[in-house]
Task: structure prediction
Amino acid sequence: MFNHCADPSLVDGLSWWSCYLTTGKHINFYQSFLVVFALLLLTVPIILAFGFAGALARRSRMLPVRWFGLGYTSMVRGIPDIIFFLFVPIAMDQGIEYLRHQWKCSDWLEPVRQGNDFVVCTAAKMPLGISPQWVHETYGFLLATLAFAIVFGAFAANTLHGALGAVPKAQLETAAAFGMSRGQIFRRIHLPQMWAYALPGLSNLWMILIKATPLLFLLGVEDIVYWARELGGTKTARFAYPHPDWRLGYFLVLLVFYLGLTWVSEKFFNNLTRRVSKGQTTIGGTV
Amino acid sequence: MSCAQTFTDYAFRALGYGERALPKADISLCEQIVLIGSGLIWNVYFAVVALGFGFFFASLVAFGRASDRKWLSLPAATFIFLVRGSPLFIQFFIVYETFVLLPKVGWDINLGFIEIGIETRWLTRAWLGAAIVLFLNTSAYTAQIFYGALKSVPRGDIEAARAIGMNTVQINRRIIWPTMLRLAWPSYTNEAIFLFHATALVFFSSFPAWQQRGDSLYYASYFADKTFNPFVPYPIIAGFFILFTILLILLFGWANKRLNRHLS
Result:
């Protein structure tokens, strides 16, 4: 990056560091922090959508839908999230390829599962074998996002279901007495008041979500954990910048990053709680 | 191979007993169930050790956090912030790398009747190192829960205890601690479930599975890799975890009933 970095063996001290920290791989490392934020920003709307769907399903007047909602929200209580993170991407991948196989290669007679192999015709591969590398990476990242959304959507559904139930009944009955329709009651009375009750649970969920982001590494995404291990490992004299095992240092950087992120989030949610509970008939709202 | 034979071969494979080689070809459903169940021994072990020791340490940290003395409350608050503010996954890496960098030494400790050798290299093994990480993790989360409950112990209870002449130690042990547990128990149950689920992370972070002695998720992902069929091993392990989570909830529910038995 800098001119004096042309021959790394000649620099030392501060200029060595300035060269070392601006190598191409380090730039990749810095960019991978954006992957974390991309995941958070992408998943949050999907999580809320899944959460609302789950919560409304649990309140549905149709029994099978209610059962489905209950099953969806209960599963995260019994099954570790990491199992979903490992299962969902590969299951989705195989499911999509199977459907495309049925659609594109219906003349194919052999079974898809042959012993320990999963075989689909070339045209059904997803993404196609000829696709460039970034398509493969994006596809993998999207499957990971979906896994996160499914798990945390179930958590959110639990929270939202509880919050919807916590709104005082008298408020809804008054609205009904005014002659509001079910939809109006939900949109104008139920939903706006629900947020104050949902916020503690949702902020907690956000904290858990932040702390689950390093698991992206397990899904094969080149995230900050991947680069920290890559860059921190021992570099012998064959490398331009030889150094001993520095992984501990790199992980301490990640630790500081996460501590900062959770700290800022906590401040933000404290502010938001104060604002949302203004005018509510709760202890926090009387001020 | 019959399923009974598979059971004797692999039921304790996770601890190193039985058949050495893992099944490679023609993997049967029975083999998957037995081996994943065998790995569950580790999950239960980690959960019992971390929760068992963590419970008492968390009580100490919670009381320290609530203390008026700065030199007690500050370290407790820092510990809670550091652990709760960072991902468990990163904590595993950091602690493992630290343990790896420690000098390899051993001590012999003479207990009079028996001599025990202690070596620092055990710390890089999952059974000790990962158990320490999980112990510290659950201690911090539990301490925060206990601290919150401590703050909501009714003032009248403490005044009444003082009025009948209890000293501070008695009040802490007989009034505050039990009331704190009672108030914290529902949240603590949740934390216990989370911790139990977190044990599945052990062999996916930095701690290597020595001689392929892994936990249930280690074997489940092994089968998913070998058969390239995720639809069998993952539902099996999910079933195991649901079963044990229900057991955990029943156990904690029983404890909750005991804690509240004086209330109508």
